[in-house]
Amino acid sequence: MTHSTARTLTQTDIAGRPLRNRLAVAPMTRVSATAAGDATVAMADYYERFAKGGFGLMISEGLYTDQAYSQGYLNQPGMGSDQQARTWQTLVQRIQAHRGLVFAQLMHAGALSQGNRFRPDTIAPSAVRPKGEQMRFYHGNGRYAEPKAMSDEEIADVISGFASAAQRAMRVAGFDGIEIHGANGYLLDQFLTDYSNQRTDRWGGSSERRVQLTLEVIKAVRASVGDVPLGVRISQGKVNDFEHKWVGGEQDAEVIFGSLQASGVDFIHVTEHQAWQPAFAGNTASLVKLARRYAPGTLLIANGGLDDPQRAVTALDEGADIIALGKAALANPDYPQRLASQQPQAAFDPSILGPIANIKDVELAR
User: Fold this and answer.
1) Vertex 185: Cα angle to 263 and 144 (nearest 5)
2) Residue 295 maps to which CATH number?
C-alpha cells in the first residue's frame, strides 16, 4: 500500500457521524427480499460481511417507498410499511455492531418498474416508453410498458411517500442516514432527463425545472427526519440508457449540483460507469470534478470503476471524500482489510449476478 492509497483508509465523518475510513459499499439491487418486500436473514448475512470486512459505510439497495407505483422489481425490499421497516432492524444492528454506518437508499422506479405487486401499470413524468428492454437478471422480460403521465396529485403522493419511508427507515429500522435515489433512470432521474420529461408545467422544460421534483423530495424528507445524514445519488447514465449525457453539458452540471448544494443535502453521491473519465465531449473534467466545482461545500461520494486503489486516489484528488465500490465489494467483502494488509484483491465473478442477481450461497460462504 502506497502513502497515497492509504488515504482511502483515513478516518472522516459524514454530517458529524464518524466513519472509520473513506470506503463505502455502493447500493446494489440484489432482489433477495421476500415477495412481500421484507428483509431476510440471507440479506443480513450479506450486508454484515461488508461491515466485518472493514467498510466504513454501507448503502442499502434501493428500497421502494410506498404501496402504490414505486416498486421496481419482484423480491425488491421495501420501506412502504412499518412491517417492512421492522424486518431491517436486526440487519442494521448487525452492521452497527462492527462500527459501520448504514444508510437506507430510497427509490421510486417510475417508468422502469418491471415487477410491482401493487399496481399493473406504471407512471412517469410523461407518457414516454423507456428505451431498451427490461432486465432479465431482475426477473424482467420484453420491452418496458408505456407509462401514464403523472398528475399533480400523484406527484404529491410520490413526495410524501419518500418522506414517510425515510421516517420509517430512521424511526423503526434504525438506519444511520438516508440516500435519495435520483440516478440511473428511475423516477427522479426521469424528471431530470430531457427526453423522458416532456412536461410544460412547473416540473418540465429547463434543467432548473426538471430538477425541482428531486429538490422537493429532499425538502420533504429533511422535514420528516430532521438532522440526520441526508444525501442524493446522481448519474448521467441509466440502467436502460447506459451512455446518456446531460443535454446541457457542464451548464446542466452547474444547475444540478448547485441546486443540490443549496437544498442543504449533506452529501452528493456521483456515479458514472468510469468515474475518472471526462463527463462530456470536449471537456476534460470528470463528473466528480464538476460536482466539486459547483457544490464546493458538500461531501462527495464517488462511484464507478474505482476498484483500483490508484483510481480511487484520483477520484479523491478530484474532490471526492468517500469512494463507493460495487463489484469490487462483491468480490472482496473485506476490501478495506485487504488494502490495509497489502493483500491482492480477488477478481469479480460475473456468475454472482446470473441468471438472477440475487444473493447466492457461494457469496455467503466466502
Assistant:
1) 145
2) 3.20.20.70
